[in-house]
Amino acid sequence: MVKTKSVKTKSSESKAKASKSASVKSTKAKAKKSTATKVIASKSTKTKSVKAKTTIPQLEDYHWDAFNCCGCKGCVWVDHVYCSGVKYGMRCPSLHEYEMDTYSAIGRSKLALGLLDGTFDFNETTLDIIYKCCLCGACDIGCKRNLDLDPGMVLETLRIRAVEKGKGPLPAHKKLTDKIAKSGNRYGSSAASRGNWLPKNIKTSKKPDMVYFVGCNSSYKDKNIAIATAGILDAAKVKWDLFPEEACCGHPYYVAGMADAALKQAKRNIATLKKSGAKTIVTSCAECYKTWKVDYPKLMDKPTEEMGYKVIHITELAAEKIAAGKLKPTHPVNLKIAYHDPCNLARLSDDWVPWHGTRGKWGVTEPPKQYRRGSDVPYQPARDILNAIPGLELTEFIRMKENTMCCGAGGGVAEAYPEMARNTADHRLEEAQDIGAEAIASACPYCNDNLSYVAADRDRPIGIYDVTELLNASLTGRGI
Ligand code: SF4
Ligand code: SF4
Hints:
four-stranded parallel β-sheet, 10 strands, disordered N terminus, single chain, binds iron/sulfur cluster
């Protein structure tokens, strides 16, 4: 009942532009019919978004979202319009693993309310609930199909609060972030060797149009992704250079809840970018992409479009160049491939738009709030690239685009709960095999890592590639 009423009064951008008086009259009439909705209406009139003293998002800002969770489970199941059955019907990897609502956005919303009113405290159990979550955004997008709440921000601010209270992050996150603090990268490797992957035959520009932010993984570990990306930039005749004095984007800080450290890293990286004079950053890592595009603005309480730089993913750039005839994939890659949308390059990467307004009856926002529904994000470029490669047959996962299933590694889960990360990857590999794919392509080195490890570890004969590797192979004929 609550669900139906709330949907009718949902404050989408267009609805918020509608006449305020008409909306009030209509909500008064409907309120007579429902005691339950009266509770929400009276609560919501009192609810003001807290204008924090800090620019860092606060749990109180999302009290309304936690309070109005009605347990409809839109955050848990893939919308029935897209869902082909029970086996691949779940969208929440945490609930899939632990099979209890506590480990979903529903349970975590209740936990947030309890922590805000003092019913609960941060302890081993509550931290376990908070951190056994990939921050994959599937719940957030699902909820926006129903109630337009922001459960994703409830989850993020829960972690920020845990750290503020001195209870988070978990030891595994601390170990990783200590390495970043000491060396500037998540592997504790030397900063001087960060660019060693760059092949000698590839020349960078002294007057670049853009700088390539490689990310820790492809700088030190999956260097083939960096090499393929440089090859694509070179083949497309882009004037580019490496990001100067590159250090970690700070994603591991943010997902661990260490917002102060993430903000410090953001300021350091933005200052370095400004010094370079470049205005465009290209990334090949979905996590770096989302961090620059969404989390830096979020931490600074600014809209993405006012950050003074533009971030693009290599798949966006390459797809554009292919469409313009400036990149010509000619060598065949004979594989049937399923494209795995990385959460951070998909539903999580809508521009950040701050909102510090008030809510009236039925939660109507003033000024109108712009919702991030995973609708203005680059789902298509990677698909366009794969479709342009001769011999390659692109097939789709059952859960794709905004319904993509996380590989399991996100949100610090790979470090703190490796078993959950591996089981989730295995579930994704099984989905790929069930749709008849011979291989999976992704556009994030961390998806690549987790899926590759589990495919080998659990004897699933399926190839795992990055889109850049496949494209570069088709451009050069050097094979994959
Ligand atoms: S978080 Fe949103 S989608 Fe999930 S149960 Fe609550 S209201 Fe429904
Ligand atoms: S972010 Fe992902 S793992 Fe966490 S509760 Fe939401 S759907 Fe589940």
